[in-house]
Request: fold
Amino acid sequence: MAGGLREVLSDGSYLAGLHVPGSEGLAPYRAAARELGGTTITTIHGFMRAGLKLNAPLLGFDPNFTMLAEWEAAALFEEELASVRLLATDPDHDLHHALVIAGEDVVPLAMELFGKRSLAEDLAFPTEPLSTALGLLFQEARNRLLRRLGGGAMGPGEVERAALRLFRTPTTRRRLAKRFPVVLVDEYQDVNPLQGRFFELLAEAGVRLEVVGDPKQSIYGFRSADVGVFRRALDAAEGTDALLEPLKESRRHSRALVAFLNGLTTSLAADGLGFQPREAPLVSAAGDQAKVAGSVRLLVAHGDVNHGAMRQFEADMLATALEAAHEEQGVAYDGMAVVARTNWLLGLVERALQARSIPSLMLRGSGLFDRQEVRDVRHALQVDEAERRVRAPEERREARAGGLYADLQGVPDVANLLAVE
Reply:
């Protein structure tokens, strides 16, 4: 942000003309530069904590409360659940009957429910016996956890619930809106329902809320992220001046990779696999990357063999492809890089390369895998695979991406499927 402001103030535009100041000239940018020092840049939970600390005395919290990691909160909840189960073994205990009905199932069910508590503010349990019993035991364990923590510590889900209390009184609502009059939320496709409700209430309180997101990169469902929250914001802004034009230029991809992504996302969107057509606009290469032709080859392995054999086959297939690129296309080995999700996978590839006398240097770490161009392809493929599992786990579909046909059935199991020049 600071770099962008400096560039506009010094050069009169951002990214060589991508953004040019409007009729007001540079005055708004100078004002923004002056205010930058007071900007709060943090995570969603960090922002919620800031709002809670601002109003802590009014809500009965310790202003210096700490936020527990999710694993810590889960471990403490499990302890309280164990205490409830122990106490409920007494036939005279109020929850004894519930414990008898739930049995040993209460532990995995309650832990799973605790991990998904960000999906809804209020929990409702059906009236059938097991659900009712689970609800009673879960609520008791959770209430014990809240009493144990008091107002001095909270897990992520507890921070989210506490943050929603900021909008229940005019005083706390006004204080929050006055302290944070403008809020920009990035990666909005990855917020969970409680976080989404928090930001919706923030906008209703008069805060100027701007959200940025891309459903094609919604990959945190395992953390209770719900892309529907982003879509609600998109629907609300549709047809108004609040909806800005999507970014359609990429300054980090070669022309070949852009063409591949366009074909892939257009095809998946047309079939409703993970995202909608309006969420997959065609993108063009821009800047220096527009001068780079590049190339993409997609290798996909699938079959009925065991997991280890499939991994070995993938490594051999990739090594063969790299060897062919060197011998047939003249690509230097020192211009190649293999990216894998784990060091174990890299070890398989290294041995496959050595078997062909291909020189290799093992660099352990996550830097290469975090390169944005690699992440973009991976995210698009993962979104598609997640959607397939929801719709029909046994289904095998042929996907077409810009003239490239590939069976995507085994996508999550092929992290090393790209050879990108």
Summary: The CA atoms of residues 85 and 99 lie 7 Å apart. The longest strand covers residues 182-185.
